[in-house]
């Protein structure tokens, strides 16, 4: 099944691609891989959430933020590739979770992105993953997601 059709069937509308605010490109395609730069949880003109997990942001909100980051990443990937139907499989996901001292549930938070990938890509969405706790993220967001896909 087409990934573009799958998005429609699931009722998932990707947000418009957001240009980078700093000196990088959102996607690099090289040697059959597409490297998607870290994505923040932009929701329209603002951020979906701010703060740190374990200090005002709960795991459920963190999962929703991770999903939002992933959808923003798919948006810039679609722009770079012309269609998500060129994605052969998702290879790797890295989730950065802004974490208060004593917060150790980073994998549960990054599951928000992993679950969205599984929902959209099925077996082609089975990926390697890292969930990393950090002291702070840009713009005080709770989660940043980057990923790599193989492409046709």
* CATH H level, superfamily name: RutC-like
Helix/strand order, N-terminal first: HEEEEEEHEHEE
Radius of gyration: 15 Å
Low-confidence stretches: none
- Overall mean pLDDT: 97
What's the CATH C level? Alpha Beta
What is the 3D shape?
globular
Instruction: Write out the strand line-up for the largest beta sheet, numbering strands in chain order.
Output: 1-2-9-7-8
Structural class: alpha/beta
Protein name: RidA family protein
Pfam families: YjgF_endoribonc
Domain Endoribonuclease L-PSP/chorismate mutase-like: 6-133
Organism: Neoroseomonas soli
How are the SSEs ordered, and which strands pair?
Elements: H1 3-10, E1 27-30, E2 33-39, E3 42-43, E4 46-47, E5 52-53, E6 56-57, H2 59-81, E7 87-98, H3 106-121, E8 128-134, E9 143-151
Parallel strand pairs: 5-6, 7-8
Antiparallel strand pairs: 1-2, 2-9, 3-4, 7-9
Task: Report a brief summary of the structure.
This is RidA family protein. It is built from three helices and nine strands; from the N terminus they run H-E-E-E-E-E-E-H-E-H-E-E.
Please explain how this structure is put together.
The protein has 152 residues and is an alpha/beta fold. It has a single domain, classed as 60s Ribosomal Protein L30, Chain: A, CATH 3.30.1330. Helix content is 31%, strand content 31%. It has three helices and nine strands, in the order αββββββαβαββ. Strands 1-2-9-7-8 form a five-stranded mixed beta sheet. The protein has a two-stranded antiparallel sheet with strand order 3-4. Strands 5-6 form a two-stranded parallel sheet. Helix 3 (106-121) links the parallel strand 7 and strand 8. Helix 2 crosses helix 3. The protein is globular, with a radius of gyration of 15 Å. InterPro entries: Endoribo_LPSP/chorism_mut-like, RutC-like_sf. It holds the Pfam family YjgF_endoribonc. Residues 6-133 form the Endoribonuclease L-PSP/chorismate mutase-like domain. This is RidA family protein.
């Amino acid at each position: 099944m087409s990934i573009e059709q799958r998005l429609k069937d699931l009722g998932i509308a990707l947000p418009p691609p957001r240009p980078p605010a700093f000196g990088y490109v959102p996607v690099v395609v090289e040697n059959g891989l597409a490297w998607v730069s870290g994505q923040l949880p932009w929701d329209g003109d603002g951020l979906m959430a701010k703060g740190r997990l374990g200090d005002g942001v709960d795991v459920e909100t963190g999962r929703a933020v991770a999903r939002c980051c992933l959808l923003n990443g798919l948006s810039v990937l679609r722009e770079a590739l012309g269609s998500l139907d060129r994605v052969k499989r998702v290879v790797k996901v890295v989730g950065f979770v802004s974490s208060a001292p004593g917060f150790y549930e980073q994998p549960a938070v990054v599951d928000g992105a992993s679950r969205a990938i599984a929902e959209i890509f099925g077996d082609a969405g089975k990926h390697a993953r890292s969930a990393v706790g950090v002291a702070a993220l840009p713009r005080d967001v709770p989660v940043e997601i980057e990923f790599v896909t193989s492409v046709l």
